[in-house]
Amino acid sequence: MHAAAAVPTEERNPASMHLDAMPLPDLLRLINEQDATVPGAVAAVLPQIELAVQAGVRALRSGGRIHYFGAGTSGRAAFADAAELRPTFSLDPDKVVAHVAGGLEALWSAVESAEDDDAAGERDAASVTSQDLVIGVAASGATPYVAGALRQARKVGATTALISSHPHAPLAEYADIDIAVNTGPEVITGSTRMKAGTAAKLVLHTFSTAVMVRIGRTWSNLMVCAVPTNAKLRQRAVRTLVSATGVDPDVAQAAIDAAGQELPVALVMLLSTVDAATAREALAAAHGVVADAVRALT
Asked: Residue 258 maps to which CATH number?
């Protein structure tokens, strides 16, 4: 058997053998039915995702960072996940860093040959330290660029993880945590932008969201650290404070203004009945965790 045939995403899907001859409603239904299998496949690896979340929290709390490494669809999914953490959770941009084979150009223009460069992966991982968590994202579980990054991370003692759609991924040997989502053959053979890409996005979103919750970037289920940079987000900031504290909207807005548009500071002010300086000092001592800051002030 050819080596590629051993990769589940490269196998032919019996359900889509007559794809090009299907009536359009049947084609759409088939794609939808196949996509619907992905959440169940992700559910099966929740214990592994839990390990990754614990490692991510340890990394950030110890002053380390979280690194994503990927190529093609996997790299673009990783980049999008990392980029969304700053506006959603006010996370410093250097805390979760995405490295994409081929650089930024690969985000909007295919640079497929870059994934074969394991030396580039090793170079891009040169800044990794033993305090970091390094996550390789590779549908095939065999991407050389990701291999180079994971090997380099292992050399310096970083914790490593792999997100793939290959239950027997070759790169699993370099991963302390193997998150292998068994999505099976794609509707279009080898088109990992489909089920494997969806699985990678779900795993990444689940992982990063859980990490942010665990390091205190939410209050209950509210985005209390979101950066209010436009009209929609400014309105949401007021609604968030109203929901969290029960104050009137004008009181919430006044607190936000007094806090210099820093929503966590405004929340601590309202919950603890303190001024902005005291709230900001308590938050700093609590490493940004609103609940800990409030407890310290009560």
From this structure: 1.10.8.1080
